[in-house]
Every structure is written in C-alpha cells, then in structure tokens.
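Figure 2 data, in text form.
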Amino acid sequence: MDATAALNEIAFWLERERATTFKVQAFRKAAELIGGFSPAELAARTADGRLKRMKGIGDRTFEVIAQAVDGGVPGYLADLRERGAEPLAAGGHELLADLRGDLHTHSDWSDGGSPIESMLDAARMLGREYLALTDHSPTLRIANGLSAERLTEQLDVIAGIGAARASTDHPQVRLLSGIEVDILEDGTLDQAPELLDRLDIVVASVHSKLRSDSRTMTRRMLAGIEDPHTRVLGHCTGRLLNGSRGTRPPSDFDAKRVFAACAANDVAVEINARPERQDPPDELIQLALDAGCLFSIDSDAHAPGQLDFLQYGAERAVRNGVPAERIITTWPVDRLLEWSGREQ
C-alpha cells in the first residue's frame, strides 16, 4: 500500500472520530515528510533506519510506513477502517444518501487544518457531488479570516483547481466558491459587496457578542438575513454543547421573526451537523419548519474527516420531520446555483 495514502487515510478516520488535533497532525505531517520520496528511496530509508531518525516520524507513524512499504495494509489503519464501517449516527441513513453536497466547509486558508485539495479528495471519497469552500471573513481574526485581497486570491485558486480537475477522466467534486461571512454588530456583512457578488454561496453567521439581549440580536440577524447576498443562515444560536472550546448557551433572539425573515428572503436555515453544535436546537427546527423555511445540512468541517459529520445532521433532520425536498443540499448543483443566483 502507498505509505503516504495510508498516513492520510489514518488522519481522515481520526478526524471523523474527533481525535485530538495533535494526534491527527502527527500523521498528516509524516505524510507530508515522505511525500517527495520515490518508492525505492522510501524503502531504503525505512530499511536502514534513516527514516526512523527523521524529525516528525514517531514510533507509530514509522510502524505504519514500514508495514505499507512491505506491501500490506498497516494494522492501525485496518483497525480504524473496521471502526469506521459503523455509522456515526443511528438514523437518517436514507436522507444521508440523498445529500449531494455540503455548503459550509473550511480549509487552511482560514482556521481549517488542510489544503483545499485534501478537502475535495475526502468529499469525493464520501460520494459528494459538490462542496462549497466557506472560509471566514476578515473580522474573525482568531480564525485567520480572509481579507478582500486574500479572498480574491482564493477565487483564482478555486478557478485553477476547477480547471485542473475538469481535465481528468475521474469523476470530480464540483468546488463552489463561498464564504462564511460574519454578520457584524450593525447587521452588515463582513466583506465587500462586489466580492460577495462573485461567490456561489454566502453563509452568514454571528460569531461575536453572542450574549447580546434579544432585541439587539434579533435586529442584527434580521439585517444580515435581509442582505440579498445571504443564502444560508449559519449555526443560528451559536451554542456549544461540548468539545475542546467548552460549552456555551444559545443566543437569545426572536426566533419566529428570524425564521419568518428567512422564509420571506428565501434564505436557508442551516442544520449544522457538528456534534458539539447541533444547531439549531430541535425546538427551533420545528419553528423554522412551521415558518416555511428551506434548510441546508452542512458539516462545518475544518478537516477532511469531519466532512462525514453530515451523518449527524441527516439524523436530526429526519428526527424532526424535515422533508428532503426542503433541504437544498439534496438538490443537483445546477438547481442549487439557479436558486443562489449563480446559474452557469
């Protein structure tokens, strides 16, 4: 087995299991370190001990590489594959099969951990038809949000990736341009309108002052929803149920008014599939259903393995009776782009 592929696949399964970043990065770093070696050189370095002495190659990563060089599937990878054969969620499997894409993902351009190409490769492995890259906007500095200049550069990179992959004979995931743009305190969106005009998908989210009073938060969210660029309202309550960042209660806002505005402006309400978010809560999903809203089941993935978190979102959508036809991520890409105003 190719050793680099083995290391990257191990990282994928560990990300899916929500392993620590340090543990995941040990395998991704090792894959990067050996990626430039020919098979013959890698075998020689493994045999004579030079590989084991390389900084960044630990006992477990060396074991994986050595077993792959010997022609077998490394034992650690085989164990992870066996665990990965079990679904993450108990239900929602039929709806999961209907999901064609994911409209909320992050790369190493902002606070994700992997290159765009790695995210696309994982999406292809999972059978996705399209993937929107939605790195953060500039005000969210802690997440390395994209300035106008960096977003412009990223759009050129996205175009180049699309052109390169279109020239291959293998089925490819359609890469959509996008952003997770902050709804600022005054309700405006945190990016130049002329750049937002160029994007396939705009996910608008609140990331700051989450404990504002209901009147202030409602006014802020309504303004963001009413901006014609907004297509998806991201993780609307901002709550955190568990995880490395601790817990956080949901924001306080007038959900009936917010979801009525989403329905009136044809903005989809995100069912954020991250297990630490599970946002919106079930009772708000019901309010959004009653308001006539569309929905978008998204992974909010910050690493390739997290793209499989869509399983959690599908389970919650089914449990709450959300019809598949009202979930925009079940739509073919042409219909999606027509809805978003980016038909091509």
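Caption note: Residues 3-84 form a domain with the DNA polymerase; domain 1 fold (CATH 1.10.150).
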